[in-house]
Design a protein that fits this description.
The chain is an alpha+beta fold. About 25% of the residues lie in helices and about 15% in strands. The chain folds into two domains: about 80 residues, no CATH class; about 130 residues, Trna Endonuclease, Chain: A, domain 1.
């Protein structure tokens, strides 16, 4: 009988009681001690899925981490229509979507990932919704691209950007029933209090290293599905060698 971390030793296993496919390596049909596989049985004794269902699970669009030379960058798992909406702005709008519900039905906020951005005059809004008879617009001002007096981030735009922002705000407040602006530094402070792990692993400004990703998974801060390639080193196999029993005693 062979037990323990079987999935680490081989992903594909078949019994040796029928036809042998010669295209498969021997490990498919044999245990590490060379004995043929007679019976395959998987016993789930830790109630993993019922346990997870009791936890607080994520909502909204997913996040996919793109691996570039061992550094991981978060991207929303949703199609962007080509606009320049930032990832963190879409997360902010997603976080307030639950405020716009009528008779149990969500009234979707129009964004770059569920349709085209709403244009009012010459301005494209980060979000727009018609709710309870009101036209509501949303804009997210990243402190790198919009002058901000509330943090020390240096704006990359020229001095005329503040004038353009003021003109935008004045126009949209006049045209809409409600116009809501969120500054990036304000939202990051909210996230650091309410959802620090999301701030760290999703909308951080620098790519994450492989070690940071692994540490996040092991600590539970990073929740999701990891696609990995598992290779079990020989020294790890030796640690579980005691799980291989002599079946002759049964």
């Amino acid at each position: 009988m062979f037990g323990g971390l079987a999935a680490c030793f081989t992903r594909h296993a078949e019994t040796a009681t029928g036809d042998i496919n010669e295209s498969f390596p021997p490990v498919v049909y044999k245990t590490p001690n060379g004995s043929p596989v007679r019976l395959i049985s998987q016993l789930d004794v830790n109630s993993l899925y019922p346990t997870i269902m009791r936890d607080t699970l994520p909502t909204g669009h997913g996040i996919f981490y793109i691996n570039e030379d061992g550094h991981f960058t978060a991207q929303p798992m949703a199609k962007n229509d080509g606009s320049n909406a930032s990832k963190i702005s879409l997360d902010w709008i997603n976080s307030i979507q639950g405020q716009y519900v009528t008779n149990g039905e969500i009234v979707p906020i129009m964004t770059a990932i569920n349709g085209k951005e709403k244009r009012i005059g010459q301005f494209d809004l980060d979000g727009y919704v018609e709710f309870e008879g009101k036209r509501i617009g949303f804009d997210f001002f990243g402190c790198r691209w919009h002058p901000c007096q509330d943090c020390t981030t240096e704006c990359a735009e020229g001095p005329t950007k503040a004038i353009k922002d003021a003109e935008r705000v004045d126009f949209l407040r006049e045209e809409l029933d409600s116009y809501i602006v969120m500054k990036e530094c304000h939202y990051r402070r909210i996230m650091s209090k309410n959802d620090p792990s999301l701030l760290t692993f999703a909308w951080n400004k620098d790519p994450l290293t492989q070690d940071e990703m692994i540490d996040g998974i092991m600590s539970g801060e990073l929740f999701g599905i990891a696609k990995v390639d598992i290779i079990c080193p020989d020294e790890a196999k030796e640690k579980v060698i005691f799980l291989i029993f002599d079946t002759s005693i049964y």
